[in-house]
Amino acid sequence: MMQEVKKWYEMSAVDLGVAKHLDATYYPKPFEIICYHCQQSAEKAIKALIIHYGAEGGMPKLHDLSFLLNQIKNKVSIEERFYDYADTLTPYGIAVRYPNELLLEERHAKEALQFADEIFQWVTGIL
Predict the structure, then answer these.
(1) Which of 17, 37, 44, 115 is the most exposed place for a label (fewest CB within 10 A)?
(2) CA-CA distance, 18 to 33, in Å (whole number)?
(3) What is the tens place of the pLDDT at every residue in 19-78?
(4) CA–CA separation, 100 and 44 (whole Å)
(5) Other residues' Cβ atoms within 10 Å of the Cβ of residue 40
(6) pTM exceeds 0.85 for this model
């Protein structure tokens, strides 16, 4: 695995691990921070794929996961569910940085963990 791809992939794994750790051990659960790390994990995993496939035009400095998926849609098969996951996770990368922007509950964190994990596993299968 190319060194830069490996770095992005490893950072994705760390973000997912942090989200899972906070979910399992922290009380009260910091839903905003869990969701944020899930978005970050998915973003970094997708960016690892973008680099893996050549990152034509350089790495996009955007956090919109659907946009990032579109950067590789002609190089890898992307199931529609990953676009749904991307649309759910994207706001967690920005809106949770501002108090009272999103009101999150445990169900949101559980869903974010599932979606981020599935994106990570999908990327793992490709790399």
Answers:
(1) 17
(2) 9
(3) 999 999 999 999 999 999 999 999 999 999 999 998 766 777 889 999 999 999 999 999
(4) 26
(5) 22
(6) yes
Residue 38 class from Cβ within 10 Å (0-12 exposed, 13-18 middle, 19+ buried)?
buried
Residue 64: both structure tokens together: 């919109």
Both tokens of residue 116?
A: 């981020």
Q: How far apart are CA 30 and CA 112, in angstroms?
A: 13
CB-CB neighbours of 74 under 10 Å:
8
- Residue matched to tokens 């760390």: 14
At 44, is the secondary structure helix, strand, or coil? helix
**What would the pLDDT profile of 69-116 be if each residue is shown by its tens digit?**
999 999 999 999 999 999 999 999 987 666 666 789 999 999 999 999
How many CA atoms are closer than 13 Å to the CA of 51, on its beta-carbon side?
18
Chain CA centroid to CA 5, Å: 15
